[in-house]
Amino acid sequence: MNTLHVAFFSGDITRSGGTENVSIMIANALADRQDPDIRISFISLFEEKSEPFFPIDPRIGRFTVYPTVTHGIQHYFDTVRRLKRIVKDQHVDILVDIDGILDIYSLPLKRSTGVKVISWEHFNYHQNPGVPYRKLTRRWAARKADAIVTLTEADKKLYEDNAHPKCPVIAIPNPMQQITPEPVYDADSRTIVSSGRLTYQKGFDMLVDVAAQVLPKHPDWRWLVLGEGEDRPMLEEKIAKAGLGKQLILKGRVDNMADYYRKAAMFVMTSRFEGLPMVLLEAKAYKLPIVSFDCETGPAEIVIDGVNGDLVKTGDIADMAERVSLLINDGERRVRYSAHADEGMDCFDRASIIAQWNRLLKGDE
Predict the structure, then answer these.
(1) In a 3-state reduction of DSSP, which class is residue 176?
(2) Which listed residue, of 75, 96, 285, 356, carries a Cα 20 to 30 Å from 211's Cα?
(3) Are residues 242 and 355 located together in one domain of the fold?
(4) Which residues form the Glycosyltransferase subfamily 4-like N-terminal domain (predicted)?
């Protein structure tokens, strides 16, 4: 049997976002199986950093469509041409588009190269962050892709009910990390942690509004935001106006996220929308109590409300502030939530998720 070359296609695999995190996690695990029948690579439109934020297994090849940062639909035909050359030269059999918007470049290659295309949805069917023509690519994928992978059963149903796909739609969740050494919850911590790219989707502007209601009443607490992004200037101005500069701190891109999770009292997520948020799975892996907006897909499949976290109606600043304050004031509640962090996590078992991907790539799914 010939080796099956699977290339995960990314905008920029060196970024520090949840999409890059889970994609590298899956690719590394597939490479670690040392299956001689599968070769794994990454193809990025470009790589802004010389080294990826999340470590990539050295057995995994890396290719770029452009040698430098290149944005814009005006480069569409050149991008398709360049991608086609990589696919043909590297004998790529399957392209896994780790952002559905990349389908616009990969789907045109099916006829001329014979490559199979798997569209991996990291948001949800109703969300079109940053790109108005994402709706069109989803409908195109529904007609032309070889498979669509969603992160939740709820999103799978949204695709089937709205796009009427001609290809299989398969729900494969993100895996929960295995942490060593075993995390020990710090019941004495006075630190709240949030993480993610500083973008509209992640709702850090609302996080500042929540913090403005919470932190002044608790001067011995601080709130750290881990991540970088285009909203930083706006957030810095908003934090300064709220007088929170000494308590609400934008830490930027950090290399030692595990250290922050291990020393945190709780994790808070204020996203407007998600697919299946890796940050919540990471927080649970470190046994952190969670307070999260209950956006359309994701949080409700990770957090059991009132058992290991609190779910809040998306955008309800007052209720979010109240739930965060409740955990600050009730140490026993925090410890109880931490003790139940693993409940409901069986479906996020890493080994079973990697097995699902392996079956899909080999055509057994």
Answers:
(1) coil
(2) 285
(3) no
(4) 17-175
**CA dist., res. 225 & res. 102, Å (int):** 29
Cα(14)–Cα(333) distance, integer angstroms: 38
Both structure tokens of 94: 């399957």
Q: 105-139: per-residue pLDDT in tens?
A: 999 999 999 999 999 998 888 876 566 677 889 99
Residue 354 phi, psi (nearest 5): -65, -40
What is the reported pLDDT for 48? 93
Domain membership of residue 327 (yes or no) is: yes
What CATH number is associated with residue 289? Answer: 3.40.50.2000
Q: How many CB atoms lie within 10 A of CB 78?
A: 12
Tokens of 241: 């106006």
DSSP 86-139: HHHHTT--EEEESSGGGHHHHTTHHHHH--EEEEE-SS-TT--TT-TTHHHHHH
Asked if 260 and 114 count as a contact pair (C-beta separation under 8 A), the reply is no
User: Number of folded domains in the chain?
Assistant: 2
* pLDDT digit string, tens, across residues 281-338: 999 999 999 999 998 888 988 999 999 999 999 999 999 999 999 999 999 999 999 9
Residue 43 tokens, joined? 């193809």
C-alpha atoms less than 13 angstroms from C-alpha of 116 in its C-beta half-sphere:
15
User: Are both 32 and 139 inside the same structural domain?
Assistant: yes
